[in-house]
Write a sequence for this structure.
Protein backbone atom coordinates (compact mmCIF):
# COMPACT_ATOMS: atom_id res chain seq x y z
CA UNK A 1 0.00 0.00 0.00
CA UNK A 2 1.34 3.43 -0.97
CA UNK A 3 1.12 6.22 1.63
CA UNK A 4 1.04 9.63 -0.07
CA UNK A 5 2.08 12.76 1.83
CA UNK A 6 2.05 16.45 0.96
CA UNK A 7 5.05 18.77 0.71
CA UNK A 8 4.19 20.30 4.09
CA UNK A 9 3.92 16.90 5.77
CA UNK A 10 7.23 15.75 4.30
CA UNK A 11 9.06 18.88 5.42
CA UNK A 12 7.63 18.69 8.93
CA UNK A 13 8.71 15.06 9.32
CA UNK A 14 12.13 15.95 7.92
CA UNK A 15 12.43 18.88 10.35
CA UNK A 16 11.63 16.55 13.26
CA UNK A 17 14.44 14.22 12.11
CA UNK A 18 11.89 11.48 11.53
CA UNK A 19 12.19 11.15 7.77
CA UNK A 20 14.76 11.02 4.97
CA UNK A 21 13.57 12.20 1.52
CA UNK A 22 14.87 9.97 -1.28
CA UNK A 23 15.02 11.21 -4.87
CA UNK A 24 14.55 8.26 -7.23
CA UNK A 25 15.15 10.32 -10.38
CA UNK A 26 18.31 9.98 -12.44
CA UNK A 27 21.63 11.37 -11.13
CA UNK A 28 21.60 14.34 -13.52
CA UNK A 29 18.07 15.33 -12.47
CA UNK A 30 19.08 15.07 -8.83
CA UNK A 31 22.19 17.18 -9.45
CA UNK A 32 20.15 19.89 -11.17
CA UNK A 33 17.72 20.41 -8.28
CA UNK A 34 16.26 18.43 -5.42
CA UNK A 35 14.81 18.79 -1.94
CA UNK A 36 17.58 19.92 0.45
CA UNK A 37 18.71 17.07 2.68
CA UNK A 38 17.55 14.33 0.30
CA UNK A 39 19.70 11.51 -1.07
CA UNK A 40 19.63 9.97 -4.53
CA UNK A 41 18.77 6.29 -5.12
CA UNK A 42 17.88 6.36 -8.82
CA UNK A 43 15.54 3.77 -10.27
CA UNK A 44 17.06 4.55 -13.70
CA UNK A 45 20.45 6.04 -14.47
CA UNK A 46 20.77 8.81 -17.06
CA UNK A 47 21.36 6.46 -20.01
CA UNK A 48 18.44 4.21 -19.05
CA UNK A 49 16.13 7.18 -18.63
CA UNK A 50 17.13 8.50 -22.06
CA UNK A 51 16.50 5.09 -23.64
CA UNK A 52 13.03 4.78 -22.10
CA UNK A 53 12.19 8.34 -23.10
CA UNK A 54 13.14 7.59 -26.70
CA UNK A 55 10.94 4.50 -26.76
CA UNK A 56 8.06 6.49 -25.29
CA UNK A 57 8.31 9.16 -28.00
CA UNK A 58 9.29 7.08 -31.03
CA UNK A 59 7.49 3.77 -30.41
CA UNK A 60 4.72 3.81 -27.78
CA UNK A 61 3.97 3.89 -24.08
CA UNK A 62 3.77 0.11 -23.79
CA UNK A 63 7.24 -0.39 -25.28
CA UNK A 64 8.66 2.14 -22.82
CA UNK A 65 6.96 0.39 -19.88
CA UNK A 66 8.20 -3.05 -20.93
CA UNK A 67 11.79 -1.84 -21.29
CA UNK A 68 11.53 -0.05 -17.96
CA UNK A 69 10.35 -3.28 -16.32
CA UNK A 70 13.32 -5.16 -17.76
CA UNK A 71 15.76 -2.61 -16.37
CA UNK A 72 14.13 -2.41 -12.95
CA UNK A 73 13.87 -6.18 -12.57
CA UNK A 74 17.62 -6.62 -13.01
CA UNK A 75 18.52 -4.09 -10.34
CA UNK A 76 15.77 -4.73 -7.76
CA UNK A 77 17.90 -6.67 -5.21
CA UNK A 78 20.52 -3.88 -5.00
CA UNK A 79 17.80 -1.21 -5.03
CA UNK A 80 15.99 -2.79 -2.08
CA UNK A 81 19.21 -3.34 -0.12
CA UNK A 82 20.00 0.37 -0.32
CA UNK A 83 16.63 1.28 1.15
CA UNK A 84 16.77 -1.45 3.78
CA UNK A 85 20.07 -0.05 5.06
CA UNK A 86 18.45 3.31 5.89
CA UNK A 87 17.13 3.31 9.48
CA UNK A 88 14.91 6.41 9.23
CA UNK A 89 11.45 6.68 7.80
CA UNK A 90 11.61 7.25 4.08
CA UNK A 91 9.73 9.26 1.47
CA UNK A 92 10.36 8.72 -2.23
CA UNK A 93 9.75 11.27 -4.95
CA UNK A 94 10.30 11.73 -8.67
CA UNK A 95 9.40 14.52 -11.09
CA UNK A 96 5.60 14.50 -10.79
CA UNK A 97 4.92 11.77 -8.25
CA UNK A 98 4.30 9.37 -11.13
CA UNK A 99 5.64 6.08 -12.39
CA UNK A 100 9.11 6.08 -10.86
CA UNK A 101 8.10 6.97 -7.30
CA UNK A 102 4.96 4.78 -7.48
CA UNK A 103 7.03 1.81 -8.67
CA UNK A 104 9.63 2.40 -5.95
CA UNK A 105 7.07 2.69 -3.16
CA UNK A 106 5.13 -0.36 -4.37
CA UNK A 107 8.20 -2.60 -4.63
CA UNK A 108 9.45 -1.50 -1.22
CA UNK A 109 6.04 -2.16 0.32
CA UNK A 110 6.04 -5.68 -1.11
CA UNK A 111 9.38 -6.26 0.62
CA UNK A 112 8.06 -4.96 3.95
CA UNK A 113 9.80 -1.57 3.73
CA UNK A 114 7.46 1.35 4.34
CA UNK A 115 8.09 4.42 2.21
CA UNK A 116 5.86 7.46 1.79
CA UNK A 117 5.42 8.97 -1.66
CA UNK A 118 5.47 12.74 -2.18
CA UNK A 119 2.27 13.83 -3.88
CA UNK A 120 3.12 15.78 -7.02
CA UNK A 121 6.85 15.02 -6.75
CA UNK A 122 9.61 17.59 -7.07
CA UNK A 123 7.37 19.72 -9.29
CA UNK A 124 4.93 20.21 -6.40
CA UNK A 125 7.84 21.02 -4.09
CA UNK A 126 9.19 23.63 -6.51
CA UNK A 127 5.77 25.28 -6.78
CA UNK A 128 5.54 25.37 -2.98
CA UNK A 129 8.97 27.04 -2.73
CA UNK A 130 8.11 29.66 -5.36
CA UNK A 131 4.77 30.44 -3.69
CA UNK A 132 6.37 30.71 -0.25
CA UNK A 133 9.09 33.08 -1.43
CA UNK A 134 6.61 35.20 -3.39
CA UNK A 135 4.65 35.97 -0.22
CA UNK A 136 7.46 35.80 2.34
CA UNK A 137 7.86 38.64 4.84
CA UNK A 138 11.14 38.78 6.72
CA UNK A 139 10.13 40.14 10.11
CA UNK A 140 13.53 40.20 11.81
CA UNK A 141 15.65 43.34 11.31
CA UNK A 142 18.59 42.89 8.95
CA UNK A 143 22.19 43.30 10.05
CA UNK A 144 24.18 43.49 6.84
CA UNK A 145 27.93 42.94 6.51
CA UNK A 146 29.40 45.42 4.07
CA UNK A 147 32.87 46.62 3.19
CA UNK A 148 35.59 46.55 0.60
CA UNK A 149 36.50 43.44 -1.37
CA UNK A 150 38.67 41.11 0.68
CA UNK A 151 37.33 42.18 4.06
CA UNK A 152 36.35 38.60 4.91
CA UNK A 153 32.61 39.22 5.11
CA UNK A 154 31.66 35.73 3.97
CA UNK A 155 34.20 34.08 6.26
CA UNK A 156 32.89 36.10 9.21
CA UNK A 157 29.32 35.04 8.44
CA UNK A 158 30.30 31.38 8.17
CA UNK A 159 32.12 31.51 11.49
CA UNK A 160 29.07 33.08 13.12
CA UNK A 161 26.82 30.51 11.46
CA UNK A 162 28.88 27.67 12.92
CA UNK A 163 28.39 29.24 16.34
CA UNK A 164 24.62 29.28 15.96
CA UNK A 165 23.95 32.87 14.89
CA UNK A 166 21.04 33.44 12.44
CA UNK A 167 22.92 33.78 9.16
CA UNK A 168 21.99 33.68 5.48
CA UNK A 169 25.12 32.60 3.61
CA UNK A 170 23.89 33.83 0.23
CA UNK A 171 27.17 33.20 -1.58
CA UNK A 172 27.34 29.67 -0.20
CA UNK A 173 23.80 28.98 -1.39
CA UNK A 174 24.56 30.44 -4.82
CA UNK A 175 27.91 28.67 -5.18
CA UNK A 176 29.42 31.98 -6.27
CA UNK A 177 31.15 34.97 -4.64
CA UNK A 178 29.26 37.54 -6.68
CA UNK A 179 32.13 39.17 -8.58
CA UNK A 180 33.66 38.50 -11.99
CA UNK A 181 36.17 36.26 -10.17
CA UNK A 182 33.42 34.76 -8.01
CA UNK A 183 33.09 31.42 -9.76
CA UNK A 184 36.73 30.43 -9.23
CA UNK A 185 36.95 27.25 -7.17
CA UNK A 186 33.15 27.10 -6.81
CA UNK A 187 30.34 25.11 -8.46
CA UNK A 188 27.61 27.61 -9.27
CA UNK A 189 24.07 26.59 -8.37
CA UNK A 190 20.91 27.26 -10.34
CA UNK A 191 17.89 29.29 -9.23
CA UNK A 192 15.86 26.25 -8.16
CA UNK A 193 18.52 25.01 -5.77
CA UNK A 194 19.24 28.49 -4.43
CA UNK A 195 15.56 29.19 -3.75
CA UNK A 196 15.13 25.89 -1.91
CA UNK A 197 18.20 26.48 0.27
CA UNK A 198 17.22 30.09 0.97
CA UNK A 199 13.69 29.19 2.05
CA UNK A 200 15.00 26.41 4.25
CA UNK A 201 17.26 28.86 6.10
CA UNK A 202 14.55 31.52 6.37
CA UNK A 203 12.09 29.08 7.92
CA UNK A 204 14.74 27.78 10.30
CA UNK A 205 15.36 31.28 11.66
CA UNK A 206 11.78 32.57 11.73
CA UNK A 207 11.97 33.42 15.42
CA UNK A 208 15.45 34.98 15.32
CA UNK A 209 15.85 38.51 16.79
CA UNK A 210 17.76 39.61 13.66
CA UNK A 211 19.10 38.20 10.41
CA UNK A 212 22.74 38.46 9.34
CA UNK A 213 23.71 38.46 5.68
CA UNK A 214 26.11 40.11 3.27
CA UNK A 215 25.38 43.20 1.15
CA UNK A 216 24.97 41.44 -2.17
CA UNK A 217 23.75 42.89 -5.45
CA UNK A 218 20.60 41.55 -7.08
CA UNK A 219 22.46 38.77 -8.88
CA UNK A 220 25.00 36.32 -7.47
CA UNK A 221 26.40 34.19 -10.26
CA UNK A 222 23.47 32.41 -11.91
CA UNK A 223 20.83 33.36 -9.35
CA UNK A 224 18.74 36.40 -8.47
CA UNK A 225 17.82 37.45 -4.94
CA UNK A 226 14.14 37.90 -4.09
CA UNK A 227 12.91 41.47 -3.88
CA UNK A 228 12.01 41.27 -0.17
CA UNK A 229 15.62 40.48 0.70
CA UNK A 230 16.96 43.41 -1.34
CA UNK A 231 14.46 45.72 0.37
CA UNK A 232 15.48 44.39 3.77
CA UNK A 233 19.12 45.00 2.89
CA UNK A 234 18.42 48.66 2.11
CA UNK A 235 16.53 49.06 5.40
CA UNK A 236 19.07 47.22 7.52
CA UNK A 237 21.97 48.29 9.71
CA UNK A 238 25.24 47.93 7.81
CA UNK A 239 28.36 46.79 9.64
CA UNK A 240 31.21 48.13 7.53
CA UNK A 241 34.22 45.82 7.91
CA UNK A 242 37.40 47.91 7.70
CA UNK A 243 40.64 45.91 7.34
CA UNK A 244 44.12 47.10 6.25
CA UNK A 245 45.01 46.57 2.62
CA UNK A 246 47.64 43.93 3.53
CA UNK A 247 45.08 41.84 5.42
CA UNK A 248 42.60 42.06 2.56
CA UNK A 249 45.19 40.94 0.00
CA UNK A 250 46.22 38.05 2.23
CA UNK A 251 42.62 36.96 2.71
CA UNK A 252 41.89 37.04 -1.04
CA UNK A 253 44.98 34.93 -1.80
CA UNK A 254 43.96 32.39 0.86
CA UNK A 255 40.36 32.29 -0.36
CA UNK A 256 40.81 32.21 -4.14
CA UNK A 257 44.08 30.22 -4.26
CA UNK A 258 45.10 31.80 -7.59
CA UNK A 259 48.15 29.56 -7.96
CA UNK A 260 45.71 26.65 -8.38
CA UNK A 261 43.41 28.54 -10.75
CA UNK A 262 45.80 30.64 -12.82
CA UNK A 263 43.93 30.23 -16.13
CA UNK A 264 40.54 31.05 -14.59
CA UNK A 265 41.99 34.13 -12.90
CA UNK A 266 43.40 35.40 -16.18
CA UNK A 267 40.12 34.76 -18.01
CA UNK A 268 38.19 36.68 -15.36
CA UNK A 269 40.64 39.58 -15.46
CA UNK A 270 40.41 39.88 -19.24
CA UNK A 271 36.65 40.38 -18.89
CA UNK A 272 37.20 43.61 -16.91
CA UNK A 273 40.53 44.69 -18.37
CA UNK A 274 39.01 47.44 -20.53
CA UNK A 275 37.42 49.07 -17.48
CA UNK A 276 40.83 49.71 -15.89
CA UNK A 277 43.26 52.49 -16.88
CA UNK A 278 45.43 50.96 -19.64
CA UNK A 279 48.90 51.18 -17.98
CA UNK A 280 47.52 49.72 -14.72
CA UNK A 281 45.70 46.94 -16.58
CA UNK A 282 48.92 46.04 -18.40
CA UNK A 283 50.78 45.89 -15.08
CA UNK A 284 48.12 43.67 -13.52
CA UNK A 285 48.30 41.31 -16.48
CA UNK A 286 52.10 41.09 -16.19
CA UNK A 287 51.79 40.21 -12.51
CA UNK A 288 49.23 37.50 -13.27
CA UNK A 289 51.40 36.05 -16.03
CA UNK A 290 54.42 35.89 -13.69
CA UNK A 291 52.38 34.49 -10.76
CA UNK A 292 52.93 37.64 -8.68
CA UNK A 293 49.42 37.38 -7.33
CA UNK A 294 49.74 39.63 -4.31
CA UNK A 295 50.84 42.53 -6.52
CA UNK A 296 48.03 41.82 -8.99
CA UNK A 297 45.40 41.69 -6.24
CA UNK A 298 46.68 44.92 -4.67
CA UNK A 299 46.35 46.82 -7.95
CA UNK A 300 42.91 45.33 -8.64
CA UNK A 301 41.71 46.49 -5.24
CA UNK A 302 43.22 49.95 -5.53
CA UNK A 303 42.18 50.77 -9.08
CA UNK A 304 39.06 48.69 -9.70
CA UNK A 305 37.21 47.32 -6.68
CA UNK A 306 37.76 50.04 -4.07
CA UNK A 307 36.55 52.92 -6.26
CA UNK A 308 33.39 50.94 -7.02
CA UNK A 309 32.76 50.38 -3.32
CA UNK A 310 33.22 54.03 -2.47
CA UNK A 311 30.12 54.78 -4.49
CA UNK A 312 28.19 52.06 -2.63
CA UNK A 313 29.37 53.38 0.74
CA UNK A 314 27.74 56.74 0.17
CA UNK A 315 24.30 55.10 0.41
CA UNK A 316 24.84 53.91 3.97
CA UNK A 317 25.95 56.93 5.95
CA UNK A 318 24.52 58.04 9.27
CA UNK A 319 22.95 55.72 11.85
CA UNK A 320 22.56 52.91 9.31
CA UNK A 321 26.32 52.39 9.07
CA UNK A 322 28.56 51.09 11.84
CA UNK A 323 32.28 50.76 11.16
CA UNK A 324 34.03 47.63 12.46
CA UNK A 325 37.79 48.25 12.44
CA UNK A 326 40.14 45.30 12.81
CA UNK A 327 43.55 44.04 11.71
CA UNK A 328 42.39 40.57 10.63
CA UNK A 329 39.27 38.69 9.65
CA UNK A 330 39.32 36.78 12.93
CA UNK A 331 39.51 40.00 14.91
CA UNK A 332 36.69 41.48 12.82
CA UNK A 333 34.49 38.46 13.60
CA UNK A 334 35.08 39.04 17.29
CA UNK A 335 34.15 42.72 16.96
CA UNK A 336 30.94 41.80 15.14
CA UNK A 337 29.98 39.44 17.98
CA UNK A 338 30.70 42.20 20.48
CA UNK A 339 28.41 44.55 18.57
CA UNK A 340 25.62 41.96 18.44
CA UNK A 341 25.92 41.27 22.17
CA UNK A 342 25.82 44.98 22.96
CA UNK A 343 22.66 45.44 20.88
CA UNK A 344 20.90 42.57 22.62
CA UNK A 345 21.77 43.99 26.03
CA UNK A 346 20.36 47.43 25.26
Amino acid sequence: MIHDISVEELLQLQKDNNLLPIDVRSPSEYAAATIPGSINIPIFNDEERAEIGTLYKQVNVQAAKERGLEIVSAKLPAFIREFAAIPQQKAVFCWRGGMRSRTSATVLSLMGIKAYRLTGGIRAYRKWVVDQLASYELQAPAIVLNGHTGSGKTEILRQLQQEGYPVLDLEGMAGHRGSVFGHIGYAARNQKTFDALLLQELLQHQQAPYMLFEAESQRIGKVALPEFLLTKKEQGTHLWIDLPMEARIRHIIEDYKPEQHAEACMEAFLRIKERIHTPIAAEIQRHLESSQYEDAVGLLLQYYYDPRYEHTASHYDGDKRVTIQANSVMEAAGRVKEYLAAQQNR
Remarks:
- The first strand starts at residue 3 and ends at 5.
